[in-house]
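Researcher: Please translate sequence to structure tokens.
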Amino acid sequence: MIIVTGLSGAGKSGVLKGLEDLGFYCVDNLPVPMLSILLNLAFQTQTNTIKIALGIDSRSEQFLHNLVAEVQKLKDELKDNLKIIFLTASTETLIKRYQETRRNHPMISKDVDLLKAIDREKVLLQPIAKMADITLDTNSLNSHDLRSWVQASFAAENSRKLVVNLVSFGFKYGLPSESNIVLDLRFLPNPYFIPALKHLDGRTPQIQEYLFDQQLVKDYWDKVLDFTKYASEHFYEEGRFFVTIAFGCTGGKHRSVSFVEKMKQQNWNNVKFLTNHRDIGKE
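Model: Translation complete:
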């Protein structure tokens, strides 16, 4: 049994769709009093391999209080057979998503605007967030990325993979908040100062050739590759599902993008790569 919860707008529907693709029986927005009823019905069936995923949103302070008590009861009963996924994202990302979809936040009222609703929900959800087995920051993930993460994380145990999210970024735009590992590339030669290369980005062969033909870049790449592979192996052994490795240069257009593009071509055991070039186009 998997409970999918978290901040409204953080991607719960995407995770549930991915679990449904894996054969989970998915129920969204189930009333809290029906959790135990559904569980009893499920385990009275003729099969002992049923897989259930429940999507639960915030609705009110009393709703969340009841949810915490009920989930704790389920954790005590099911132990390792229950996993809680808590989805989170930055306030900026959530506001952008609600503006794009034009949906109402469940805590909006005539006296509470979107920003206040998000802040209030973050506070109210802290108790359930502390109970989560997996906390997933979805700032840099789209719906396709979420389903890929679900596939890699909850397929049959012998095919479980660690999803490594490779993010390129520019330091002048700030660090990606979801990063587990940050690698600074600003000391490497910068194509920005080569007039013929300035307008290109790190996805192009010209930028990649310019960088990886230089010994300093080659040496650093070898060290980065050894370190990230070593770290990923141990993240996997620890039972992690998702890791973000961020590559940063000044503007997030040339060096960081090239390293992400080269890294995603690696073929590591038990690892699936996602890529996100966060700051391309911001210049």
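Researcher: Any highlights?
Model: The two ends are 46 Å apart (CA to CA).
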